Amino acid sequence: MTDYMTQDARSVAICAYENAIRLGHHYLGGEHFLLALAAADQPAGAALRGRGVTPERVEEEIVRLAGSGLLGDLDRDALAAVGIDVDAVRDRIESSFGQAALQQAARAAHREPGISSWSPRRRSGAVRDGVFLPHAPDVEKGRRNACREAQARHGTQIGVEHVALGLVAVGEGLVPPILSAIGVSAPVLRTAILDRYRQAS
Q1: What is the pTM of this model?
Q2: At what angle do helices 86-97 and 101-109 cross, to 10 degrees?
Q3: Model confidence over 145-155: pLDDT tens digits?
Q4: CB 3.0-4.6 Å disulfide test: which of 26, 113, 145, 201 passes with 166?
Q5: Residue 125, SS3?
């Protein structure tokens, strides 16, 4: 996919990957792309933020729906019931081994020997710095949608706007419940994204 993307769209894809790693997730999902798009310094990012889809809100919903960090999607309350304070564990690890210790551990857990660059693979996923993350089904659907959006506008490459339009059109995964929790619909976002790009052109 990245071979057909603009540099800005590639940057969004890399940011999505880094979001997944930072949050301790073992996959690359549409929610990680939504978080990257919400932070993007592009008209699509401005359109999302203008409708309340900010990086802070998106990340809050991702953590609520999918969990984060050292213990992934394990229930924080269930762990507390057996005497495990997740925040205390995190603080102790970071004070002993440094702020990046958990991120390094997450990378090591997903590392594949001999892989050192971001590149498409036969199996669906993303690789960077030797760490492989499989794509969730919503990412594959979003990619296909983005290709269709680019073709419909006679584009030769997939831009940030195509990625955003393709992602909000996906009806599965965590993006729809995140948008619902924020209080915005996919059709409203589609119109806002298209309007921003018309204004920027």
Answers
A1: 0.74
A2: 100
A3: 999 999 998 88
A4: 145
A5: strand
